[in-house]
């Protein structure tokens, strides 16, 4: 069972299923956060990052620079606090220098990344993309604390 509709031929779906490189070290993730913020701050065109929490409403417009910066700072703090490992390993991107798509896995819903038997691999907790996301249904229920965290960022 694939939680993403196979018939959807969107850029988001293509990127979601495409090759993404993992960030194994925390300094790589910290650098990606800064790259995304600086890339957006330096952009001469309109804001282009859609921030999507799986299971929430699909954003209909990209985040502005303030929203993007707030999310990047808060997700960085959350992952450092809750993924208490010496390595990162739960963030994937299409490019470290010029990213357009990022998957961020929730440290409390990692499961088996490759899936096993009848269980599909877990979905990430969040995506950032230049493409409009599609609605994804979480395989596991979203906790109340995670929903409160998200709603505090995007009331």
Features:
155 residues; alpha+beta; five-stranded antiparallel β-sheet; 4 helices; 5 strands; 11% strand; globular; disordered N terminus
Termini separation comes to 33 Å
Q: How many DSSP helices?
A: 4
Calculate the mean pLDDT score and round it: 85
User: What string gives the helices and strands in order?
Assistant: HEHEHEEEH
- Strands side by side in the biggest sheet: 1-3-4-5-2
**Which residue ranges are poorly predicted, with pLDDT under 50 across at least 5 consecutive positions?**
1-9
Global structural class: alpha+beta
C-alpha geometry:
globular
Tally of extended strands?
A: 5
What does the main sheet amount to?
5 strands, antiparallel
Strand content: 5-15%
What level of helicity do the residues show?
25-40%
Number of domains: 1
Work out the radius of gyration: 15 Å
Describe the structure in brief.
Helices cover 34% and strands 11% of the residues. With 155 residues, the protein is α+β, with helices and mostly antiparallel strands. The chain has one domain (13-153).
């Amino acid at each position: 069972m694939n939680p993403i509709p196979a018939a959807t031929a969107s850029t988001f779906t293509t990127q979601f299923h495409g090759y993404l490189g993992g960030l194994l070290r925390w300094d790589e993730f910290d650098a990606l956060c800064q790259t995304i913020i600086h890339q957006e701050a330096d952009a001469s065109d309109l804001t282009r990052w859609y921030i999507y929490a799986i299971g929430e409403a699909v954003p209909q417009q990209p985040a502005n620079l303030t929203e993007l910066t707030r999310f990047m700072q808060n997700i960085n703090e959350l992952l450092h606090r809750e993924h208490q490992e010496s390595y990162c390993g739960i963030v994937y991107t299409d490019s470290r220098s010029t990213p357009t798509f990022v998957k961020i896995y929730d440290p409390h819903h990692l499961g088996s990344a490759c899936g096993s038997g009848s269980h599909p691999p877990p979905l990430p907790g969040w995506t950032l993309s230049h493409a409009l996301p599609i609605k994804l249904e979480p395989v596991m229920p979203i906790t109340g604390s995670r929903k409160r965290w998200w709603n505090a960022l995007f009331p």
